[in-house]
From TrEMBL:
<dbReference type="GO" id="GO:0016020">
    <property type="term" value="C:membrane"/>
</dbReference>
<comment type="similarity">
    <text>Belongs to the glycosyltransferase 28 family.</text>
</comment>
<dbReference type="Pfam" id="PF06925">
    <property type="entry name" value="MGDG_synth"/>
</dbReference>
<dbReference type="GO" id="GO:0009247">
    <property type="term" value="P:glycolipid biosynthetic process"/>
</dbReference>
<keyword id="KW-0328">Glycosyltransferase</keyword>
<dbReference type="InterPro" id="IPR009695">
    <property type="entry name" value="Diacylglyc_glucosyltr_N"/>
</dbReference>
<dbReference type="InterPro" id="IPR001296">
    <property type="entry name" value="Glyco_trans_1"/>
</dbReference>
<keyword id="KW-0808">Transferase</keyword>
<protein>
    <submittedName>
        <fullName>Monogalactosyldiacylglycerol synthase</fullName>
    </submittedName>
</protein>
<feature type="domain" description="Diacylglycerol glucosyltransferase N-terminal">
    <location>
        <begin position="15"/>
        <end position="181"/>
    </location>
</feature>
<dbReference type="InterPro" id="IPR050519">
    <property type="entry name" value="Glycosyltransf_28_UgtP"/>
</dbReference>
<feature type="domain" description="Glycosyl transferase family 1">
    <location>
        <begin position="212"/>
        <end position="335"/>
    </location>
</feature>
<dbReference type="Pfam" id="PF00534">
    <property type="entry name" value="Glycos_transf_1"/>
</dbReference>
<dbReference type="GO" id="GO:0016758">
    <property type="term" value="F:hexosyltransferase activity"/>
</dbReference>
Length: 389
């Protein structure tokens, strides 16, 4: 049996992180299955994908307003839906060819464009395997395919209610899984009340967010120790090294899950951009979140959504970072209120993504002859699940 995961670009993104996290969890329970990740944009047009990927980071850094304009006009429907028609013209045949070539038994979309295209194929009467949308931000933009998709894995109960109400979907097809993260990321220790405080500063894999400006407002204070995740930004890494400031340590790109877990477990807060996966990891680890900047588009929407729920705070890069952190760490009531809000937010999560995929597979096998044709039975899966528990 083959499960196909569809992010969009070759570069590391939250869409890839989610796909890889779910695959690793499934491989531990269903090693006999075949799992394939296809970067759809690269599959459809390698040259165009490379050009867009190379231009993307420069674009959002130097001309964020034009990116906001494109994001709003591309991801949200207009009366003409011209942009959707262009997507169909350019990519629809490529998607059909991909599904025909790969012949998967289940498709998991972790990005909107592949979902949109498969949804269109269904609307035009094409037969496709069952499809799952896993949403990787704290909202659902209008490019996602919705009505023709079989199952929806959403970040929280509020988005489930919004999705069900707006599109008249059966709640039985929508599952609150949170944004999937690595299974090893277990809840963080209880917040300590005495220094030194260990703080992660993250700018994503590319080390974005004007971190150079941020660290200029970090005093050399032994009560705060900062680990700066520079990602693949070598310039940032070297600039921080050149500071020779004892309480700021730059870290190169971390690919090892255990190393990242250890960093989380030994930290007391994170200062980050509001990418969906990073926020989900921090929430799951019960790590206080401070946002230093937001890239235009989806990150800004993520920030506004979670800020309304009281799950994160804004850091002013033009003021003393340590003074702002002190306001949190010296206020026990504020810390307790934050922890209460986090637990209230996480409590309604019903399933993990991998658990629900296994449940859906079991239901499918119980309803058709695949039960006898495959290399395992639902009983074997149930046995694995029992062992996991």
């Amino acid at each position: 049996m083959k499960i196909l995961f569809l992010p969009l670009f070759q570069m590391p993104t939250g869409h890839h992180s989610v796909a890889n996290a779910v695959i690793r969890s499934l491989e531990n329970r269903l090693p006999e299955f075949e799992y394939e990740i296809v970067d759809f944009f690269s599959y459809a047009d390698k040259l165009l994908e490379k050009a867009f990927r190379l231009a993307y980071l420069t674009w959002i850094d130097h001309s964020p307003q034009t990116y906001v304009w494109l994001y709003k006009n591309f991801m949200y429907p207009s009366k003409s839906n011209l942009h959707h028609n262009l997507c169909e013209y350019k990519f629809l045949a490529k998607m059909k060819n991909l599904l025909d070539t790969q012949a998967p038994d289940l498709v998991v979309c972790t990005q909107a464009l592949p979902s949109f295209l498969i949804n269109r194929l269904k609307e035009y009467g094409e037969s496709t395997p069952p499809v799952i949308n896993i949403y990787t931000d704290f909202f659902i933009n209008k490019l996602w395919g919705i009505t023709g998709i079989d199952y929806h894995f959403v970040p929280d109960q509020m988005i489930k209610e919004e999705l069900s109400g707006k599109y008249d979907l059966s709640p039985a097809k929508i599952f609150v899984t949170g944004i999937p993260v690595e299974e090893c990321f277990n809840p963080h220790k209880i917040q300590k009340s005495t220094p030194p405080y260990h703080i992660i500063i993250s700018g994503g894999n590319a080390g974005l967010g004007d971190i150079e400006h941020l660290i200029q407002n970090i005093d050399n204070d032994e009560e705060y120790l900062f680990a700066v995740l520079c990602g693949n930004n070598q310039k940032l890494y070297q600039e921080i090294l050149a500071l020779e400031q004892e309480n700021i340590k730059p870290l190169r790109y971390i690919s090892c899950r255990e190393t990242m877990l250890n960093l989380y477990q030994n930290s007391d807060a994170i200062i980050t951009k509001p990418g969906g996966v990073t926020l989900s990891e921090a929430l799951r680890m019960r790590l206080p979140i401070f946002v230093h900047s937001a890239l235009p588009g989806q990150e800004q929407v993520n920030f506004e959504y979670l800020a309304k729920l009281g799950l994160l705070d804004q850091i002013d890069q033009n003021k003393s970072i340590i003074d702002q952190l002190d306001l949190f760490f010296q206020d026990q009531k504020r810390q307790l209120l934050w922890r209460t809000k986090v637990e209230e937010y996480l409590r309604p999560i019903e399933f993990t993504a991998w658990q629900k995929i296994i449940d859906l597979l079991e239901d499918s096998f119980a309803e058709n002859s695949l039960l006898r044709e495959n290399t395992f039975s639902s009983g074997a899966v149930l046995s694995r699940k029992a062992n996991d528990e």
